[in-house]
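$ ./design --mode recover --in tokens.txt
reading tokens...
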């Protein structure tokens, strides 16, 4: 979706013209494979680094356009949200010190981003999901002002025919409707590319699928979303659901998610793989193609297969097959899309070396994956690793193994062998794979985040704990130590002053009653839990009143409450409410002016939180 000329497929003529180009691209790829034109005899690696922009209060910063302009470097590009950017590293030949070179290149580019960000009071952070992202930062105002993102949103909504629904269950549960694809912006990843030989592409791709579970399990770094503890790698569920074009109906039918691990081992050639993608997935986008790929091929030129690549870019496989042209030569590569950003550059490069080493060290027994491993075991391993990370038990070679044991006993030796075959410098190989081994025995980024967050929650409210967690990530990130060496119990600085909106401090785990409930039940609930303000909802879930100790005391003093009296008989209907994006100081002024002790927080008339005068005292400047 990086192409500025991409447009929605609205008129039939341009759509059909684009589809014809896709079909010609596939035929051209078939011919290039038959003629042996795909580059061989060399292996290259590449990577894409996505990162978050945060302000001085550790929250998302809408400064991507300014920073991109200040950096003025073609390696940088926008992402869907105004608080994310991406770096595209130059490809390197897989040999010698290539990982050290890639690491140095990435550090230099990130330092350029750091310097540019300082001009706009912005920090950069490497993390799979930014802990401090709130629902208020997932609205259109935060979408990057680039037509291709609006097109993505438009076409995804059109094909879904309804709002997007997120439902992710972990330790906590997140269930929410959303009117755009911007939840996808919560995901930041470190995407890794490996060039493969044409005649070995399908076995390589299947092996990439097979190792996805354990590689992800030891690399997870995204356990929190909107303050909820969800999956160890919540990005996996979030990405699929945030751009899911499938519809619900009373009919039981199989539908292909556009974010997918797949349903079977691949077979045939790379062209056959792409043919399957064309058959399974509707074309969402189009663009004007300047030259026909078959014509270019017959002229002796190498076609870019622009139509095929555009369609392939709208299918988000966790292991994505890619066709490209570099220095006039066509190549095939596999893109690993499931590894999260962070926690440090060193952790990312260790993940990179581990994955590439495994890819290069594939045992001969796995050349024919159809007979070596059941596909559903590989898929199950991936899902389990996403859910529970390093704490998962996976199925490998006919037996159950923990991620730790599978990585340290089976896979690390293969990675060492694979990097050795690629003539990677021993010092680099040992340095990076040692990080994986230590992390397997200690903690991943996800485990560190959860332990740190739970530790903070012992003394802090949810928002303050998320802020302190983010600040701690930032403080450790560029020191150089990998995440398994980060301390969990160090003191955190005082950070509550960074809260400036009601959504940052409101209580969200609420007791509520229905207006038809017995008044005596509501009063008992308030007394049992020492609740001074109890919101009242109607049958539609809308806020319709509130009960307060002061109001109830007046009824009890006069013995006016009977055993059949309903909540609606004693509740206060004249209530003041506020919204998620109300400034804290404005809320304080409202409560003082009207002499009220609490403010329910609503969104579309639905209660989402409550804030009391006690919550606001530390922010009161008077």
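writing sequence...
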């Amino acid at each position: 979706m990086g192409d500025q000329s991409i447009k929605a497929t609205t008129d039939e003529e341009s759509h059909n013209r684009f589809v014809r180009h896709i079909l010609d691209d596939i035929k051209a790829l078939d011919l290039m494979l038959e003629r042996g034109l795909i580059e061989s005899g060399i292996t290259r690696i590449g990577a894409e680094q996505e990162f978050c922009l945060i302000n001085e209060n550790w929250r998302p910063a809408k400064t991507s356009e300014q920073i991109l302009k200040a950096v003025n470097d073609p390696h940088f590009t926008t992402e869907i949200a105004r608080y994310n950017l991406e770096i595209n590293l130059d490809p390197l030949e897989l040999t010698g010190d290539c990982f050290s070179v890639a690491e140095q290149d990435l550090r230099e580019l990130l330092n350029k981003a750091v310097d540019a960000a300082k001009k706009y009071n912005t920090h950069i952070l490497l993390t799979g999901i930014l802990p401090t992202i709130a629902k208020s930062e997932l609205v259109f105002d935060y979408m990057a002002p680039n037509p291709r993102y609006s097109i993505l949103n438009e076409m995804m909504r059109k094909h879904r025919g309804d709002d997007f629904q997120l439902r992710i269950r972990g330790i906590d549960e997140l269930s929410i409707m959303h009117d755009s694809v911007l939840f996808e912006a919560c995901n930041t990843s470190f995407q890794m590319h490996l060039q493969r030989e044409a005649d070995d592409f399908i076995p390589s791709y299947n092996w990439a699928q097979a190792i996805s579970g354990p590689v992800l399990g030891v690399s997870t770094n995204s356990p929190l979303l909107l303050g909820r503890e969800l999956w160890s790698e919540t990005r996996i569920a979030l990405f699929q659901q945030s751009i899911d074009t499938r519809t619900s109906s009373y009919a039981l039918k199989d539908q292909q998610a556009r974010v997918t691990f797949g349903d079977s081992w691949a077979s045939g050639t790379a062209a056959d793989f792409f043919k399957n993608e064309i058959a399974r997935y509707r074309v969402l986008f189009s663009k004007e193609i300047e030259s026909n790929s078959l014509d270019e091929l017959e002229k002796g030129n190498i076609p870019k297969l622009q139509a095929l690549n555009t369609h392939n870019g709208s299918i988000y496989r966790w292991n994505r097959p890619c066709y490209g042209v570099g220095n006039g030569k066509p190549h095939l590569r596999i893109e690993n899309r499931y590894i999260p950003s962070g926690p440090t550059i060193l952790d990312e490069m260790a993940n990179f070396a581990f994955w590439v080493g495994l890819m290069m060290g594939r045992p001969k027994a796995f050349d024919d994956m159809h007979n070596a491993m059941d596909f559903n075991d590989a898929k199950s391993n991936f899902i389990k690793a996403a859910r529970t990370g390093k704490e998962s038990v996976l199925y490998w070679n006919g037996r159950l193994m923990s991620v730790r044991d599978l990585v340290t006993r089976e896979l690390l030796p293969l990675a060492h062998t694979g990097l050795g075959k690629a003539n990677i410098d021993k010092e680099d190989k040992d340095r990076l794979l040692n990080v994986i081994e230590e992390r397997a025995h200690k903690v991943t980024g996800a485990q560190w985040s959860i332990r740190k967050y739970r530790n903070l929650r012992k003394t802090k409210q949810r928002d303050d704990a998320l802020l302190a967690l983010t600040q701690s990530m930032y403080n450790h990130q560029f020191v150089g130590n990998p995440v398994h060496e980060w301390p969990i119990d160090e003191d955190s600085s005082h950070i509550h002053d960074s809260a400036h909106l009601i959504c940052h401090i409101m209580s969200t785990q609420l007791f509520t009653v229905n207006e038809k409930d017995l008044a005596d039940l509501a009063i008992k609930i308030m007394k049992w839990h020492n609740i001074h303000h109890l919101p009242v909802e109607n049958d539609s879930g809308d806020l319709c009143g509130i009960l307060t100790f002061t109001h109830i005391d007046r009824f009890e003093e006069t013995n006016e409450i009977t055993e059949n009296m309903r909540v609606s008989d004693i509740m206060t209907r004249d209530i003041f409410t506020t919204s998620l994006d109300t400034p804290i100081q404005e809320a304080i002024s409202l409560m003082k002016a009207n002499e009220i002790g609490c403010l329910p927080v609503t969104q579309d008339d639905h209660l989402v939180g409550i804030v009391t005068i006690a919550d606001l005292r530390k922010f009161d400047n008077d």
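exit 0
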